[in-house]
Amino acid sequence: MPDDANAFQTALALILGGDPDLIGIVALSLQVSLSAVLIAALIALPLGAALALWRFPGRGAVIVMLNALMGLPPVVAGLAVYLLLSRAGPLGEFGLLFTPGAMVIAQVILVLPIIAALTRQQVEELHGEYREQLTSLGVSRPRRIPTLLWDARLGLTTVMLAGFGRASAEVGAVMIVGGNIDGVTRVMTTAIVLETSKGNLPLALGLGMVLLVLVALVNAAAHLVGETAQRRLG
Known about the structure:
Layout: H1 2-16, H2 20-53, H3 59-69, H4 74-85, H5 100-136, H6 141-151, H7 153-168, H8 172-178, H9 188-198, H10 201-233
Helix pairs in contact: 1-10, 2-5, 2-6, 2-7, 3-5, 4-5, 4-8, 5-6, 5-7, 5-8, 7-10, 9-10
């Protein structure tokens, strides 16, 4: 117990003292996760809205697949990206393996289905309310997408926060494609695994506390956005 108490105190000292190693790991984690969520959102928001508005053969299968991919195991996503980016893979010539770029790609694959599936649900519900009005105004389906996405912006902010939470807490995929290289691809989750195995509990605990605070802030933000949306509807 004393060792654990000392490790906890040292972890707090690392956080409060702005330890360079800890700050660097946290900064890279935020950079990778935020980049992944932004890229995924640029693809997933219009994709989810399009699925909500258009009816076509096989639409049900696409929706089922998208929902299934929300639970895609991170190690599977990491393996797929690894095979794509390895020297023998189709994208090996770009040299992205074991770089932050590879980690962003892996997280995009994990986050995109979540944002797209939840966007489809929200836009489909919203379109059901405004369909007659939009039709009477002669608004075409492509033009309805930005309108509905803007009107659903509060709910979609919660969706984005959910995607960020998924990305920031992920370890398997980024470990496979990033390699956990010190100062290059080491993020909070992979560093916690490594430092714990090395017996460096203060740094592992410090990173764990920062990650917990980050997750708590994301959930608090999602709750506040949800409350704001409910007050608007009320």
